[in-house]
Design brief:
single chain; about 130 residues; alpha/beta; Rossmann fold; globular
Amino acid sequence: MEIEILSVGKIVLKRIILDFNGTLATSGVLIKETKDILEKLSKAFDIHIVTGDTFSSAKEQLKGLNVKTIIAPLIDQITFKLEYAKSIGLSNLVAIGNGKNDSLMLKYAKLGICVIGKEGANLEAL
């Protein structure tokens, strides 16, 4: 998908990497409307959910959706998420998250979007 951003210009986006808790889910439960949105987005983008999976619920909550679910290790999730983002290509990547462990992938993706939902957002992610 090609979009134009004021003062940035045209960019082409092919993949989306998302956090789970606080971004797509609250307290480990997928937000109701999110499932339909992910289904629609997966028709135009490769979707990757990379999560620390605090509530050990991500794989079950995302079952049946056309997304890749990656569970980050407990140690150094911020680096893991950035390295995973690099491995799928930063140049056409949208990163979406709200936590400290999302901050570097948000910074280095072609387009980074910080979500401020019920669980808030970490200052470093902003």
